Amino acid sequence: MVFYPPHCTVTEIGTCNFSLWEPEYLTSQIRSDLFDVVAVVMAPFSGDETAPFFGFLGAAAALVFSCMGAAYGTAKSGVGVASMGVMRPELVMKSIVPVVMAGVLGIYGLIIAVIISTGINPKAKSYYLFDGYAHLSSGLACGLAGLSAGMAIGIVGDAGVRANAQQPKLFVGMILILIFAEALALYGLIVGIILSSRAGQSRAD
Fold this sequence. Notes:
Largest sheet: none
Helix content: 55-70%
Strand content: under 5%
Distance between the termini: 38 Å
Number of strands: 0
Radius of gyration: 29 Å
Shape: elongated
């Protein structure tokens, strides 16, 4: 927006004396807005300007990939539970374990996403590319681990609940397989927390 002196018309701008344009001609609101714009433009950015992009990308990756794994595991095992429940409805609640374990994967991604997002605050502390890469790797580690675990839980849960309906002795074996599949996501959560804790250690401010 261009401000012209109030005593000049548009046709007189070329011959107008701009020295007569004093601050009192501007309203207090316009002066306040101008000062705010100047303060924002002249305020120095603490750290690397592109670093928060990688940090927020890591937070999004952690939540998105983990929820993708949780959604696939829930849907895949849920189909098996529904199919098995037609013939053996008394085993539905007992066979809901894969669905619950798949849903936990989304919580892992949520935890890492919150940790990363709270660690991105360039106004409080300088945020460099090292910090952004650390948060990106943290989010990818947790998200992709959760995605792979969700796929394993879904496939095993689907086949396991169907087999358990025909042979009840397979229940313990199915649970053990699901526990080890869930452990994959837990590994990603642990590594993600360790990597996110490395942010802010690139240099001393």
